[in-house]
């Protein structure tokens, strides 16, 4: 049985003696269809046949199984994610400690180099005194009269002393330049290591926060594209 077409007039009369008479009303685009009692019972018998009810029960059972399986899979994935988070937290904690040890070691090295630089500068200043004395002795010897202007052993030793002091100063200055260059390199390396330590601290803080979350947490929000790899992400091997 199909509904009456939209061409029906839809005129309906009612009297206390005859009840409702006339044509069933029809509304354009939204038809009101009326079925007889026999048609309603026939439809119920068709709907409630064992074949249909068995199919509905089977669908209900399958739906429950699918829901249970979905929850089991979700719990398994949640446990796996928690284990991976715990392992990553352990790795981050280990590497953070290693970075801290490296920062402390390079800080001690910079302090040692700074002490050596101060010693080298002090040594260069101290060398000025024996050199000045030797040069003054040589200059005073030049004031002798010509018969006494001789290159004796004393003058030879003074010349050697001036040359040795000059060579020592040159070695000290070269060493001082190398120390200052090494200090600059160490400070740059320390800045890079401290930046890496800061990144690891942020990552460790986030992972520890994530480890406390669960499907029942009220802080969880749904965002589009959260499973995508960000552009600045690195592989585990590179990290």
TrEMBL record:
Localization: Cytoplasm, Cytoskeleton, Cilium axoneme
Keywords assigned by UniProt, alphabetized: Cell projection, Cilium, Coiled coil, Cytoplasm, Flagellum
Pfam families: Tektin
InterPro entries (alphabetical): Tektin-like, Tektins
GO biological process, alphabetically ordered: cilium assembly; cilium movement involved in cell motility
Cytoplasm recorded as keyword: yes
Positions in coiled-coil regions: 96-123
GO CC, one annotated term: nucleus
Family to which this protein belongs: Belongs to the tektin family.
PANTHER family, sorted: TEKTIN (PTHR19960), TEKTIN-4 (PTHR19960:SF12)
Stated name of the protein: Tektin
Protein species of origin: Pteronymia andreas andreas
């Amino acid at each position: 049985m199909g509904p009456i077409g939209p061409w029906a007039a839809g005129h309906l009369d009612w009297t206390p003696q005859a009840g409702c008479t006339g044509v069933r009303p029809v509304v354009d685009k939204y038809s009101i269809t009326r079925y007889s009692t026999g048609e309603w019972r026939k439809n119920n018998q068709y709907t409630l046949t064992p074949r249909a009810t068995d199919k509905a029960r089977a669908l209900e059972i399958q739906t429950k199984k699918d829901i249970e399986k979905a929850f089991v899979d979700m719990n398994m994935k949640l446990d796996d994610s928690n284990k991976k988070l715990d392992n990553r937290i352990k790795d981050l904690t280990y590497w953070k400690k290693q970075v801290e040890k490296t920062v402390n070691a390079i800080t001690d090295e910079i302090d040692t180099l700074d002490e050596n630089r101060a010693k080298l500068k002090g040594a260069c200043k101290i060398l000025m005194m024996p050199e000045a004395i030797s040069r003054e002795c040589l200059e005073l010897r030049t004031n002798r009269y010509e018969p006494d202007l001789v290159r004796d052993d004393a003058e030879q030793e003074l010349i050697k002393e001036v040359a040795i002091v000059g060579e020592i100063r040159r070695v000290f200055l070269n060493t001082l330049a190398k120390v200052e260059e090494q200090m600059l390199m160490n400070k740059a390396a320390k800045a890079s290591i401290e930046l890496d330590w800061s990144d690891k601290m942020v990552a460790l803080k986030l992972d520890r926060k994530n480890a406390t979350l669960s499907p029942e947490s009220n802080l969880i929000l749904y965002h589009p594209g959260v499973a995508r790899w960000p552009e600045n992400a690195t592989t585990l091997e590179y990290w």
